[in-house]
Amino acid sequence: MSKNNLIYMIFCGTSPYPIINSLWASIDIKGIKPTEIVLLVSEKQRGLEKIKKCVKTLIENTLGNNCSVENLIISEWDIKKNIDQLLEFLNKMGEQKKELVVDITSGRKTMSISGVLFVNKAISRKMVTKENFQHIIYWHLIESDKYSSKWYPEIPRENFNFVDLMEVIK
Amino acid sequence: MIISCSEIEIILNELLAQNNKEITLSPFFTEEKIFNYDLENKKLHLKTNQHSWRIFIDFLTSEYSLSKAAKKELPEFDDIKKAVVSAGLLMPEGIDVLINEINNYLTPIKRMNRRKRFLIALDTNQLIDNLMSSYVEKEFSTKEKQQVRNFISYIVSSWVLSERDGFMRNERNKGIVELNSKLQEWDFYLPEKIDRKARLGYSIYSELKSLEESYAQLESRKQSEEKYEIERNKNLKDQAIIEEYEDYIKSLKDVKFVYVTSDDKSYAIAKDHFESIKVKVENRILKELDCNFENGAKLLYQLSLFLGFLRINSYDIRFNIYYKGKEHDDWENKQLEFLCSDKEFEKRITKTISTIRKLNEC
Question: Which of A19, A58, A154, A157 should be substituted to probe chain B, the one whose Cβ sees the most B Cβ atoms within 10 Å?
């Protein structure tokens, strides 16, 4: 599978910082180069335009490639509904399945849980292989009060952990 | 690339990320070391002392055949100590008293009269050497104490600002002209020592101003003839600073006012008029200091100002004083020029800082 075909799905909360920082760390630490970013936002999402603008700015300045940024509305609490919706999203890709990364750093806990269960279900139903799902990312920030409004390169490296849940599932 | 003081933190982060666990801070292009900075454990190790610094200055003097006047313009060991204190790494005696006073007066916040304020009045040395604000700001930066921080203000007398302005020199003395010309091969520019003092005052003043509503500058009520007399006499100026603060206190209610000074004379006059704290910097710098990147960035900035430029051994990084003009505004935003002989690393830093600036504009 071509590395040029990578979808990065991000569960979004209201602040752009964890979204950008997690994505930036994925690019910097894991060398992930998305070709398509899907922002998974709740129906009550605030500040989506700002988040989109920040994501585009980061991609243009770090990868410089033509990466599209889309958004998909999901439920803030209904885990089952979210899993079904995401499986349908995956199904629509059909034969042309791509490599996927799911980022659960931001958003409500119920949204993050949806993300992990979705990956698990997709693999168990053999809709995709484990190789398709490359990473489930959780960017863990220590001293979050101090660094909640700082960008990734401004935060000392010992103040965050880059967790890949896929390593646990595999 | 022109960077701000806080952007130095990004460079320190990147150095560590690139596996540079320890860096050396050096003055000019010499073998002399000021500090080794253990980036991994956030420790600063002092590599010079009064004696070896004097030998180093003597070496420079003889190597470049510097006159007495030019030698006088070279940085002293005391400047390193000032940079350490100003960066928040070595709390001067008296600041602990100030912090206790603030805590006692402003807590517990829930039962507090909302109009209550704690005012910290500065003398000229406080403004130039910045002996205090790093420690006060750090103490009240935690989540639990942030509320208290909103009730603290810094007050600056108009005479303090006038004294600072009096240090500015746009004409160059013979010593600095000689020094800059003989050290030309290092491609740097050092302003006069007294002028550097004024510029430091400006950079700290802009930092205090950036604390928004917690800063106030007093206006002088003196007539021009009297003003002229005061400006020419140090003793009258000390008196005028105290009178101005005393007048100001009369117009206030529900405040605790504390004057902070490191000057013996000024303290002797002030303590009979209002509550005053004498700040004293220790004579020695500890061999090992805890230094997170926030303090590290401040230290690198301060050292660059005192030395003209500062060198980091890894990737041959250099920070130059950014001095584009002779106006005080040019110094207000704590800027430095960042240069690096490793073009790959320089490119990475430039790209990272530009991306952050663009993200901040979103």
Answer: A154
